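Lab notebook: predicted structure, single chain.

Context: the supervisor wants predicted structures on file for every construct in the current expression panel, including those that have not yet been purified. This is the next one on the list. No modifications to the sequence; it matches the entry in the shared construct table.
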Amino acid sequence: MIKKINLEYPLDSLEPYYSRETLNIHYNTLYAGYVDNTNLTLDKLDKARKERNFENIKCLEKNLSFFASGVVLHELFFENMGPAIPSSPDLKLMEQINKDFGNFEIFKEQFTESSKVVEASGWNLLVWVPRLDKLEIIQCEKHQDLTIWNSKPILVLDMWEHSYFLQYKANRAEYIKAFWNIVNWNNVNKRFKNR
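Prediction complete. Output recorded below exactly as produced.
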């Protein structure tokens, strides 16, 4: 069984960039639902194995992929935000960003533009790709699909409408612009260091 992670900051600490109401619903309702449904699916899979009844295995495995991926990505998203200092990458991450994207401004522009055009219930991610030995930005239109296997998420932005609509309505660009004010670079730096 998995448990919800605890937020490392109060619900209102990301304002005005990310409202308390949005964060409360996102964390306590939507994310909690992913945790609950992951656990429910794990229970059903355990029961199927004990009874050796795999009649619904396709559905159960699809559900596990969907709900557990939702748990992981939401946890990364919540951990990637915060009222933390510093407000920029550390030296090692900045060197890698400069190497792979040219400079920070080009990286930020690509990440921003990529986020704007994510389709469906999708995400935008900065990932470390060990096979390529570099950072890349990828769109994940369904959070259980369209990944580069073995890549490690470094920075995650939830582009599902539920993550911004209450506050920003259909203005994705303003939501993305606000996100840059609450990136927890301590967490991003740590993820890059531990890649």
